[in-house]
Each structure stands twice: as C-alpha cells, then as structure tokens.
Amino acid sequence: MRISFIGAGRLASQLAPALAAHHTIDCVYSRDLAKAQSLATRVNALACNDLAAIPVNTDLVIIAVSDRAIAEVVAALHQHLPHTLIVHTSGSTAMSVLSAIHPRAGVFYPLQTFSFERATAWEQTPLLIEAVQDADLASLHSLATALSPRVYHYTSAQRLSLHLAAVFACNFSNYCYDMAKQILDAQHADFGLLYPLMLETAHKATQADPKTMQTGPAMRGDDAIIAMHQTMLEQAGQTDLLATYQLLSQQIGQRHPV
C-alpha cells in the first residue's frame, strides 16, 4: 500500500516508520517543511508543505493533525484526491467530519500516548478502526493487524468514550504525578522514591477493578490525616494542589462511604 501522511508530529513520527516496514510511504506533509523533511528522511518519502504535491496514486492518506484542523485538511484533500481513502487518527473527532466531505472516509486511532523520545510498543497498542465502505474497513484492518493483534472495529461514539477515559487514565494521572513531584521538590525529597508505588498502582489497576484497589485516607475516612495534608499544602502556598486534593478526597469519600 502507498501511504501519505498529513502532519509530522508525535503520532506521525511513530506511526510512519512502523508502517514503512510493510508499506511505501509516498509523502509527508507539514506546514513546516523542515519538520516534514525530518520525518520523510526516516521513511524514504517525499517531503512537502503543499497538499497538491501529494502523489495522486497514493492509496491512503493518514491525517495526523490537531482535531480543529481536520475538517479544513480533508476539504482540501478532497479537491486533490477525490477517490483516495482518507482517514484521521483522532479519538475525539467523529468519522462524519470526514464523510460529510469525502466518500471514502475512515478512522485509524491508536489508543496510546506518543512522544518523540520513546519508541511505541505497537504490538501492545489497541488500534480502533472505522470506515464508511466495507472494502476500506477491510484494508484498514489488514493495515492495523500488521502492527498489533489488538484491532477493534469501534464506532465514533465508542471511540469518544475511550478518548475521554484515556484523559482520566493518562493525562490527569500524569498531572497527579506532576503535583506529587511539586510537593517533593519543595522539600528537596527524591521523586524517584515514588516509582515502585506508581508502578504497583498501575499494575493493580490492570489486574482488577480499580474501585476495589482504592486505598488511602479518603477511602478510610481518616479526617485527621486529610486535615494535616490540607494544612501542609495551605502553609506551603500550594493552593492549586490544595483545591485538587480537596476535590479528589471528596470524590473518593463519596465513592467509598465509610
């Protein structure tokens, strides 16, 4: 399959090389030509900052840009490639954003967090696919199974629920790690001492219902410890952390009434 990428960010920088092992990457587009060139060099592709430069014989275009730019991009692509399969990689954008403009529309959503620095373990990554046409869904399924055994035909509504859940499980939990480090940095304590606890908590959450794994003073209704923690945060002037601590403690208490 001949594939072109729109975008050269974190997701594209991981997905394009993975697909290049099995397919031809025709072109990498980015408004920043230097970024397009950097990724294109890795996958032996053409780099461009003009959508009209994408080869007309490309079989698949993968849009890997911010959600707010998807509709504008597909409208421009439809003019240039009216018969090409075009997919986006968003968890929160409905397929209808594409299909309202382009008849051969689909979704290829990796349920994972991406960075430039860390290689993606594709064999462990769930891939959620969707397409308007059955033949295109079959093509996306074949494309996905070459990367991962965990391929799911999910609707836009199901995908959105997973994206929302991922914000809690990934983005919000990472911010909790950030808050924990702020507390320790203020006392010149070693954040690394929390690593075993963080890993064990994540491991337990994958082995059982997270509700049954909940621990801590809020779950136990230990008001004395909660008050002490809140005083520490208040005296340290960490009012944003205090507000989060109070809200989460309240929510945990409601979830686990003593």
Automatic annotation (TrEMBL):
DUF2520 domain location: 126-252
UniProt domain Pyrroline-5-carboxylate reductase catalytic N-terminal: residue ranges: 2-88
Pfam families in the record: DUF2520 (PF10728), F420_oxidored (PF03807)
SUPFAM superfamilies associated with the record: 6-phosphogluconate dehydrogenase C-terminal domain-like, NAD(P)-binding Rossmann-fold domains
Gene3D superfamilies hit by this protein: NAD(P)-binding Rossmann-like Domain (3.40.50.720), ProC-like, C-terminal domain (1.10.1040.20)
Annotated protein name in UniProt: DUF2520 domain-containing protein
Organism expressing this protein natively: Vitreoscilla massiliensis
Lineage: Bacteria, Pseudomonadati, Pseudomonadota, Betaproteobacteria, Neisseriales
